[in-house]
Amino acid sequence: METTLAAAEGLSGRITVPGDKSVSHRAVMLGALADGETCIKGFLAGEDCLSTISCFEALGISISRNENSVIVQGKGLSGLQKPEKTLDAGNSGTTMRLMSGILAGQSFSCRIDGDASLRTRPMDRVIAPLALMGAQFASNKAPLEITGTRLHGIRYSLPVPSAQVKSAILLASLFADGETVIEEPIPSRDHTELMLRACGAGIERRGNHIYCHSAKRLNPFVAKVPGDISSAAFFIAAALITPGSSIQIENVGVNPTRTGILEAFRAMGADIDVINLRSEAGEPVGDILAKHSKLVGTEISGNIIPRMIDEVPVFAVAALAAKGKTVIKDAQELKVKEVNRIDALAKQLSKLGAHVEERPDGLIIEGGHPLTGAVVESGGDHRMAMSLAIASLIAKGETVIKDSGCVDISFPGFFDCLERVKRHAL
Ligand code: S3P
User: Ligand 1 pocket, 310 CB below 6 A?
Assistant: First the structure.
């Protein structure tokens, strides 16, 4: 599929975005391991989370879906069954890495595979700590052959700030003898910790250490998944860069481990308000109001990067409209996402006339150069496709995005939502 988009005159409207991807994955996983029925409201029915559902169905868990909710019939910590065939994580790194932690502690062996992109992504980052816990993996890239075994607790300092690695270890610790202690030098998203605590697991955080004990049982729960700030970020950026725009995005998760993007936009001079702040099922939620702003270049680096790792592509797009230079540093993790996003951003944004210099750990963007529509490629990466769509709003003429169907991985209905805020402005 390819999508052709024209520059926008101004955008307006009140919208909602689909449920948070990270929270949706975790709700299915913990629901499956809990004793009894878990109800997930606001679940993201994107391809990645559907991969997690199909993996748990293959492990003998009954999961039903209707328009409003997903119901998971949890069978307890020892209720998973050996799957008859290879588990398929599709394009989803979260599915494969988090499930590795669960599968490592089972009493059966199995195999988990993914698509061509996932097969290239590093899995040694989860396998190394899990192997220290006693886990048995036959390879360090997908397809992964996992021989389930008895695990034991470890002390581990995360060498990369990765919520997926942290979560894989935390999930494995549920099946491990003794205490597991994770040191997290740079904070990353903490949805696993919050949800485990809500299920009654013995988990505690002190400073930058997380302490977790094996669990006898997890309590089923009702999860209310907030809108995904990673999806909202596309529409925040759209409003900021398109003259005459004002967009309100309602019911967005604003967990502080995820809001680096709001701080980064504000450092550029963005007019963003978070209103109606409230707490829902343990996660902070608010409505985000973003208006067209006179942006200026800035630098992002260090600890903020993991708190906005998925939003760096659309932040780079906003930098195209900012006066002066924007520097993105310490973001080498972008090289091992669905595609190498540093390389992809430099190549694709340059096709629109942007001045972007690729660096080993980020990008230098010289904003304010006029953009012109062109044919650009997503490379099958959902966040690249959506970032390029936002860039098209300020590119003269038409932009054609090749392989645009991948937006369904995290944001089904993205292009319709974009059309709605464009029409509203008329
Ligand atoms: C995620 C963690 C991040 C993020 C990904 C979702 C999660 O990955 O990029 O989209 O749900 O834990 P890393 O842990 O590799 O940084």
Answer: yes
Q: What is the pLDDT along the chain (426 residues), one digit of tens a residue?
A: 999 999 999 999 999 999 999 999 999 999 999 999 999 999 999 999 999 999 999 999 999 999 889 999 999 999 999 999 999 999 999 999 999 999 999 999 999 999 999 999 999 999 999 999 999 999 999 999 999 999 999 999 999 999 999 999 999 999 999 999 999 999 999 999 999 999 999 999 999 999 999 989 999 999 999 999 999 999 999 999 999 999 999 999 999 999 999 999 999 999 999 999 999 878 999 999 999 999 999 999 999 999 999 999 999 999 999 999 999 999 999 999 999 999 999 999 999 999 999 999 999 999 999 999 999 999 999 999 999 999 999 999 999 999 999 999 999 999 999 999 998 765
Give the other-Cβ count within 10 Å of 186's Cβ: 16
- Domain 2-19+226-424 CATH superfamily: Enolpyruvate transferase domain (3.65.10.10)
Q: What is the CATH number of domain 21-211?
A: 3.65.10.10
Which tokens hold the place of 293? 């702003």
Residue ranges matching CATH 3.65.10.10 in the chain: 2-19+226-424, 21-211
Q: Ligand 1 pocket check: which of 121, 164, 261, 340 to mutate, most ligand atoms within 8 Å of Cβ? A: 164
The dihedral through the CA atoms of 142, 402, 260, 201 has a sign that is negative
Helix axes 21-33, 47-58, angle to 10 degrees: 10
Q: Is the CB of 378 under 6 A from ligand 1?
A: no
Substitution candidate for ligand 1 out of 30, 47, 94 with most atoms within 8 A of CB: 94
48, 88, 310, 408: the catalytic one is 310
Asked whether 20 lines ligand 1 (CB < 6 A), one says no
Rounded-to-integer distance, Cα 341 and Cα 295, Å: 23
Alpha carbon dihedral 342, 24, 117, 107, in 10-degree steps, equals: 130
CA of 165 to the centre of ligand 1 (A): 9
- Name the pTM for this structure: 0.98
The verdict on the CB of residue 95 being under 6 Å from ligand 1 is no
Q: Is 189 touching ligand 1 by the criterion CB < 6 Å?
A: yes
